Amino acid sequence: MNSLTDNSLMLQVKAGQVDKMGLLFERYHRPLLAFFYHATSHATGSEDLVQTVFYRMLKYRHTFSGEGEFRTWMYHLARNVLADAAKKEKPAKYHQDVADWAEKIGGGPTADASLQKNQEVDLLHRALGQLSADAREVLVLSRFQELKYEQIATLLNTTAGAVKVRAHRALGQLKDIYMKMENGSKVH
Amino acid sequence: MEAKFINCEQVREGLMDWLANEMPADEAQAVEAHLAQCPDCRREQAAVWQLWQAMGNLPVPEPSEQMRPRFYSMLAEFQAAEQRKQQWSVAALVQKLRDWWQPAYAMRLAYGLALLVVGLAAGYGLKARVDAPGAATQQPLAAVPAPAENAQQAQLLALLANPSAVQRLRAVSYAEEVAPTNERVVGALLSTLYQDPNVNVRLATLEVLAGLADDPTVRQGLVRALAQQDSPLVQSAMADVMVQLQERRSVRGLRKLLRQDNLNEQVKTKIEQSIQSLSHDRSAPADASTPSTYHENNDHTDSALDTSVAA
Ligand SMILES: [Zn+2]
Q: Is ipTM > 0.85 here?
């Protein structure tokens, strides 16, 4: 057995070698950060949420059976963390630092082309923020976390076909929102 | 193979697979073929593709400098808290070990060992004749400097020497998995049984060693360990094991235990019963093959032990 696979590491954590979580942190703190950032547009808050996921993985390590994939289990916990955070925080607080973020990457002596690009990025990010949580999630999971539809289906307790339909619809909605915003900013 | 032909509807259905690169090669080819001749689908696909690419290019903030240290200090705290918890649960473990030694366990052990003992008695006689008196088997076991055979055993040895009782308990349960046929590991387990300050560790070790009693050095080590035990729990557990193993050489050690001043009443009764049981079977056929030289060697060992106990 390869003792460095995700599953094997997590089983070692479960068996009491808690320090093995370090390697899993090194592997997944960035993808998780992206997951929360795309869902909340809140950079610093996302780090807290990543920390919470790792804490819960330690605390609930006995629930990892090793039968399913580690990543699926991890995102299952990440979704719960996200749902809990959304309950606590006011929705308005999300996406509030998009502007800060856009400013940060747009600030300084930037060429017009990249400024233009940053505006597109900002627009797309805001469009993503306007999707319903369910629609956004399925896109985030497939596009940013690069989970296969089959894996997302396991995570969401549905079929791969249903996931594809949902993702397709979400993508269409995103396109519409984006176009509307783009037109709005042009008129403006 | 014929090229596949698909319509606009099928192109739309396969869109997500196509985007995520989860589409089989022949289907992807069919999609390309359709796009080449259908401007509507081409326009639709291009727009979605552009959006999909733009999403992929969305920036993600770099983890801050505090992120990693924060995680590792959380991990260290968690680890420390777990260790405290495990120490507290040692009391629960004692109860668990007590349960092991209840009749159910004795039955289990007896069942497994009954056949073994018959075979051993014969094997013993053979070995004792081959060995000269005072041969290597009489040396203190831990002094045999055989190397560990593999990494698992090396890890086991290191864990057995760990100052934390919890770690040593872990080592002992680990020993069951590793199947410590290596002399050094057996020696380390026996020396744990002789001198580990923690009763739980000794009990757990006894259980593992009892399972290895088909090894003559283990048996002999168990007999030797008998007189050194001062904990009622271990004493009574050892008496049980001796009866289950039908280890008659233990009678001497058991008698010596009876002479201990502060012997627990229950343990006393148990040991008396054990001696009776072991003596009663003295005329059993298996005993006939046990040569007297073996007993002499054993007596010598026991008296050597006497002095060390008295000292
Ligand atoms: Zn078409």
A: no
Q: Do B75 and A139 lie within an 8 Å CB cutoff?
A: no
CB pair distance less than 8 Å for B74 and A105: no
Is residue A72 within 8 angstroms of chain B, CB to CB?
Answer: no
* Residue boundaries of the structural domains of chain B: 8-54, 99-226
* Of residues B59, B63, B75, nearest to A22 (C-beta): B75
A148–chain B Cβ distance below 8 A for any pair: yes
* Facing B60 at nearest CB: one of A18, A33, A139: A33
CB atoms within 10 A of CB A130: 15
Q: Which domain holds residue A169?
A: 6-187
What are the pLDDT digits (tens) for B230-241? 777 777 778 877
pTM: 0.51
A110 in the Ramachandran plot: left (φ > 0), alpha (ψ -120 to 50) or beta? Answer: beta
Domain count, chain A: 1
Residue A64 domain-assigned?
Answer: yes
